Amino acid sequence: MVTACTLKHCAGKEYYCSLELTLQVIGGKWKPIILWRLGQDGTLRFSELRRIMPNITQKMLTQQLRELESDGVLHREVYPQVPPRVEYSLTEMGRSVLPVLSEMCKWGHAFEANHGTAGTTDGRAAGHATAPAADAPDTDAPDTDNDLGMAVGEV
Questions:
Q1: Which of 15, 122, 123, 124 could disulfide-pair with 21, CB 3.0 to 4.6 Å?
Q2: Which is more confident, 107 or 148?
Q3: Where are the alpha helices (DSSP H) in the chain?
Q4: Distances in Å between the alpha carbon of 38 and those of 11, 25, 45, 110, 118?
Q5: CB of 35 within 8 A of CB of 49?
Q6: What's 44's DSSP letter?
């Protein structure tokens, strides 16, 4: 017999199961890519994030960064200088999602291998990492050479 989930509340969000809550915090087209880039590249400025993700609008990047900061997944540091300098980095909670994103990337590689690709270009030409070799060892550590950044224009 299947039991119904009950409505829960956490951090201003309503949800029925923890997966739904997770997707509210890190889901969407841009948040996983923002989190991955900060995890791989460390602290980045707004302009650096825009350069890494050329298809995101300034408004959308600002919105996504504010939501991630509000949820405690990233830290925003404002330096009092002219012009103002703002840097973004992952919090401990933000770093804890990197293994999840790594597994999602591995799943994407498997899906790609199973279904093939069409009309793709060499990701390195666009400044993105390429997929690891199919026989690469499976480790618990996040991949540093993967193509999650490649998803920017494809998600």
A1: 15
A2: 107
A3: 18-26, 31-41, 46-52, 58-70, 92-95, 98-115
A4: 23, 16, 10, 24, 29
A5: no
A6: E
